[in-house]
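In response to a reviewer's request, we include the raw inputs and outputs for one of the modeled complexes. The two entities were modeled together in a single run.
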Amino acid sequence: MARYLLVRLLQSLVTLVLASMVVFAGVRALPGDPARALAGEDADPAAVAAIRARLGLDDPLPVQYLKFVGNLLHGDLGTSVRTGQPVIDLIKATLPVTLWLSLFAVLIAVVVGIGAGTAAAVWRGRWPEWVANLAALVGLSVPSFWLGILAILYLAVGLHWFPASGYVPLTDDPLRGIYYLVMPAAVLGTALAAVVMRQTRASMIATLTTDYVRTARAKGLPRSKVLTGFALRNSMIVVVTIVGLQLGGLISGAVVTERIFGLPGFGKLTLDSVFTRDYPVIEAVVLVVTVAYIVINLVVDLVYSLINPRIRVGGRTS
Amino acid sequence: MSQAVTDTAAVDLGRERGRVLRQLARNPLGLVGGGLLLVVVLVAIFAPLLAPYSPTTVHFDAPFQRPFTVGYALGTDDLGRDVLSRLIYGTRASLLVGLLSVLLAVVVGTPLGLVAGYWRGCDAVVSRLTDLTLAFPFLIIAVGLAAITGASLTNAAIALGIAQVPTMIRVVRAETLRHKELEFVLAARSLDASGPRILAQHILPNAASAIIVQATVVMPVAVIGEALLSFLGLGIQPPTPSLGIMLADAQQYIFRAPTAAVFPGVTIAVICLAFNLFGDALRDALDPNAQR
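The model returned the following structure tokens for the whole complex.
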């Protein structure tokens, strides 16, 4: 177990270093001169040169990279070329919005997905399975941002159930904060719910037909106990893996969801920085996403090995 | 288990194809998906013949026509462009991006997956590569490409394709691992067949069905991805019609013409539904364990 942990940690570290190099190289490959962009179109060359020197853009690339990593380790992500604010402040202001949004989306997806998946497995071949299967198929086929537009059109503008856009920090007013987040989170969680439902259903059906479940039932264990004790526990393993694998999609989905619902989150920061060529912010945004993604995957793997002591991936054969 | 796999692997390819087709024909949902898919592909191919107008022709005298008006079957947008024509060409763009990204995922993912599954030394390198790629969500790749060379259809397809490469590598790698210890491969090796030859002649044909199934999984993801990127301004650029751009436009004048947001969304959903239904049926038909 300790060896497994160590290997996984080292692998993540290597990925992290490689990713930081890719990001660094990618940002240097961008066309356009940030110093010129900052100085303005008609600035004289001396002013541009001064800005270049201040930003360290004249140093050789390896030196720039090492400086970049060194600053990173000190929590210094640079200063936004566009707003002049420290990048770390911009991230601190926007990241919570996206984290809350994603958290609620995952929560909704897991609750709905496991619920529907269990219903489909228990009432196999009857209407709940058909409804759940159909819903999952539609959930996978409908783009979430279209769902968002429809939700605004019908639930917000038509029925006035939810606000069409806006954000209230949960730390200021938890109830109002949740009220503003429910619709975006449900929209973002739809596709994930569909995947979780399908996996839960498949894994439950597999567990319910095993010999040990039949034995337990024969010994008089009630159906509900079998479901919660064996089937649900086994399907949790699958759900944890799936949620981990789908996080990349969730991050991409969050960007577009924020755009539709006007949330001042990390996605908005990402798009703004790209459209204004704000190098330090692009760099930081991509790095934060990458680091978060690598760390989350590591955590998912560890949780996975905890719930499944065998740590044997794909052990079940039919 | 291993006996069953050997049998499957040794099955004559021609007979296997007949079985898969019969299995497909017996799946009603698969048939619906296949039918939808045929319609979608035909619409994309014959777009110039089917569209009543050019998708970019502006009719300033007829903006915001309601659906089902004479001359404009699905109405017009803010510039008086025919919505039906734009949907038809948008479908074409969606499928093109989907096809390009699937192609990229297959062309890059298959050899890497074969190599990683066959030689242990390569596995470590390829694994780090997949980990690295997986660390970047497709939107972040698209953001990077758009920033470097500008947003375009090609860049959207490349970003979506790159994001699908790791999964393709894993699928092919798993198939390679499964087949490389089987008798027919061991036999080929004992006859002194070279590694590349074994991979190309013995393992690749047996991994083909898994690759095809994975490709049908990638298609709808890419179609939705294209719409998403174009919606954000990171994909296809106006005035070229794209379902994502149509949705972005529709959100601008959502109060004036609420129906404008409906048609592009339904079109995307139908395309994806077709691929999902057909892909599911194909997976069931190709999976020997699913035979009843």
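As requested, we also summarize the result in words. Chain B has twelve helices and no strands. Confidence is low (pLDDT under 50) at residues 1-10 of chain B.
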